[in-house]
């Protein structure tokens, strides 16, 4: 690839450019010819222009959030950013009489797959300072729990949600920022409630003497398995849970129908030549599992086919 940008001090011909932001793809006669954006300083402020010219093709691999943002800033529409999917989840903490040693070993070393129920349970380890912020209570009660940080275990439920969201370039802030809308359905929230209740019961079955469900409107500390019914006694809104989303994908889905997808089976963008999307955004459905290996396999194959046609890509 050929690179021309300022400041001059960064013009070293390197093929990997740190502190550089791509804003859009450049086209010439319906063909992707390169990308343009900005060179950033340590505070992410633009200090120069970035232009990269592709000799054969442009590959966008900026994540399920940023890939559709780049494509939409480049003038592409249709299904771009219309089918954002994810695996949101939330965590439950249990306190045990014996030390757990949660901060030692793999952070996600254990998993209970419940695919027929649209979820999975997995251990989520936290360093002590983060676990301290997760503990309930105040004053002396909180301090007593902090003094026993090694006695806590945290597990999370990740849900294969049916919700479909949308990704757009943000109208506010600096270039590259995104606006993501994603709202779990009622069925999704019922599944979240089921997962949290299952985790609470699992903690008690494993010997926990206190369980912290982390659900608004429910007791912050449960001390008996019968109290798990409090979690299940009502429907909960999204705002009742502290959720985070993992495994983001499907915002530039692959498919044969250009009206319903962004890229074809070879991950080439419909309607233009020389432009590809090779990341999790190209996966067309909610897999229900960690998509890492699927992403690697699909992209490896698509990249091989592109390379076999000769030339190089930006």
Any descriptors?
single chain; 314 residues; alpha+beta; FAD/NAD(P)-binding domain; 6-stranded antiparallel sheet; 4-stranded antiparallel sheet; 6 helices; 14 strands; 25% strand
Order of helices and strands: EEEEEHEEEHHEEEHEHEEH
Secondary-structure-based class equals alpha+beta
**What is the number of domains?**
2
Average pLDDT over all residues:
89
**What fraction strand?**
25-35%
Quote the distance from N terminus to C terminus.
6 Å
Question: What is the CA-atom radius of gyration, in angstroms?
Answer: 23 Å
Principal-axis shape: elongated
Helix content bin: 10-25%
User: Treating each run of at least 4 consecutive H or I residues as one helix, how many helices?
Assistant: 6
The biggest sheet amounts to: 6 strands, antiparallel
β-strand number: 14
Poorly predicted tracts of residues? 1-14
Notes on the structure:
This protein has 314 residues and is α+β, with helices and mostly antiparallel strands. The chain folds into 2 domains: 2-83 and 250-308, FAD/NAD(P)-binding domain (3-Layer(bba) Sandwich), CATH 3.50.50.60; 87-246, no CATH class. Helix content is 21%, strand content 25%. The chain has helices spanning 63-73, 128-134, 139-146, 186-205, 229-232, 292-308; strands spanning 2-3, 20-28, 31-40, 46-53, 58-60, 85-95, 111-114, 119-123, 152-159, 166-169, 178-181, 210-212, 244-249, 275-277. The strands form 4 sheets. Strands 6, 7, 8, 9, 12 and 13 form a 6-stranded antiparallel β-sheet that branches. The chain has a 4-stranded antiparallel β-sheet with strand order 1-4-3-2. It has a two-stranded parallel ribbon with strand order 5-14. Strand 10 and strand 11 (178-181) form a beta hairpin. The model is unreliable at 1-14 (pLDDT under 50).
């Amino acid at each position: 690839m050929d690179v021309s940008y300022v400041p001059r001090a960064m013009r070293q011909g390197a093929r990997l450019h740190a502190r550089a932001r791509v804003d859009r793809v450049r086209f010439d006669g319906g063909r992707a010819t390169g990308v343009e954006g900005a060179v950033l300083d340590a505070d992410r402020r633009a200090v120069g222009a970035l232009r990269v010219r592709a000799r054969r093709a442009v590959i966008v691999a900026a994540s399920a959030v940023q890939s559709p943002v780049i494509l939409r800033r480049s003038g592409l529409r249709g299904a771009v950013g219309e089918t954002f999917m994810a695996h949101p989840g939330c965590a439950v903490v249990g306190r045990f009489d014996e030390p757990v040693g949660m901060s030692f070993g793999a952070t996600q070393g254990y998993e209970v797959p419940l695919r027929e129920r649209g979820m999975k349970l997995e251990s989520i380890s936290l360093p002590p300072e983060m676990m301290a912020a997760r503990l309930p209570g105040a004053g002396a009660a909180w301090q007593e729990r902090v003094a026993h940080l090694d006695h806590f275990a945290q597990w999370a439920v990740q849900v294969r949600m049916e919700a479909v969201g949308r990704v757009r370039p943000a109208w506010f802030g600096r270039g590259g920022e995104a606006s993501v809308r994603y709202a779990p359905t009622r069925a999704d929230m019922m599944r979240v409630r089921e997962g949290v209740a299952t985790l609470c019961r699992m903690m008690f079955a494993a010997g926990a003497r206190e369980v912290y469900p982390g659900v608004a409107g429910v007791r912050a500390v449960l001390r008996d398995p019968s109290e798990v019914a409090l979690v299940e006694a009502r429907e909960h809104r999204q705002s009742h849970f502290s959720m985070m989303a993992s495994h983001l994908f499907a915002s530039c889905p692959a498919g044969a129908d250009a009206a319903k997808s962004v890229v074809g089976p070879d991950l080439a963008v419909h309607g233009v030549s020389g432009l590809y999307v090779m990341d999790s955004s190209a996966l067309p459905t909610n897999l229900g599992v960690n998509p890492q290996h699927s992403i690697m396999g699909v992209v490896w194959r698509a990249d091989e086919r592109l390379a076999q046609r000769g030339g190089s890509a930006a």
